[in-house]
């Protein structure tokens, strides 16, 4: 009995051992994938740690480099400052203004100036301009006050007196030229000759030209005034004619038709009054018809209407040449129909 019992117990032990081995094998099989996963996780962690460590090292290296650069800059600035301080100390030692032992300057202490904050600032007064000394004569001065001011001025060579006399002369000349017409031309000429027109010849020329440009209807009146003044003072007539020719040239260059018409009309009337020579008229007509345009031909025809009779009397050959040029322009037919009709009308006037 005992033997059989021992055998059965040994079998049972073997069976239990085999079961335990099977269980351990199955556990090992189950645990194998988990251990692989743990190994891969540990490897990735190691890699991340190594990367973070390398980044930290790189950052620390860059910080060290930046700090070393800043230290170098600070040392350079400190060297410069020390050099400046040494140079200043040497300069003060040389001048004898600095004491090394005491470290104080020997220059006298600055005295504080009394503060002027309480005192209000003084405004600078503008210099009052004398209305007489300004270019345009300044504000209006009543005649009584003007006479009183003139009486107060004793020095006739002073600037104020000369300016006042000049303004008075300009006003009188402008007033007389603006008042002139056919009926009162004799009285106006007498009053003009009483003024100092030799001194104010420029004022007279300007006022005559402005008045004629403003009202071309009275051109014959202004030309008569200029003719009378020219008979007494030829230099004044020459000055007016020169300025008139300059106005014509300027307006011709700038293609100003209306100003050319007014200036040529005044020149034509001065030719009729024997103030200007007929050669001037022929030169102006030649200039206008050299390169004919609608405007230039129109100005030439209006010029011929004003002084054509005088030209036929003085220089018939010149007026024949001018009309021959007009006939050629009409045959070329390069201008407007309206201007061609004006040329035909001009030939009819000459025939009549």
TrEMBL record:
Residues covered by the MIF4G domain: 170-352
Family: Belongs to the CWC22 family.
Organism per entry: Austrofundulus limnaeus
Top-rank lineage group of the source organism: Eukaryota
UniProt name for this protein: Pre-mRNA-splicing factor CWC22 homolog
Molecular function terms from GO: RNA binding
Principal location: nucleus
One Pfam family it belongs to: MIF4G
Gene name of the encoded protein: LOC106535320
Basic and acidic residues composition-biased segments: 1-30, 61-86, 110-129
One of the record's GO cellular component terms: catalytic step 2 spliceosome
GO biological process: mRNA splicing, via spliceosome
Record key words, sorted: mRNA processing, mRNA splicing, Nucleus
Location in the cell: Nucleus speckle
Record's compositionally biased regions (Basic residues): 38-60
Disordered: region residues: 1-86, 100-131
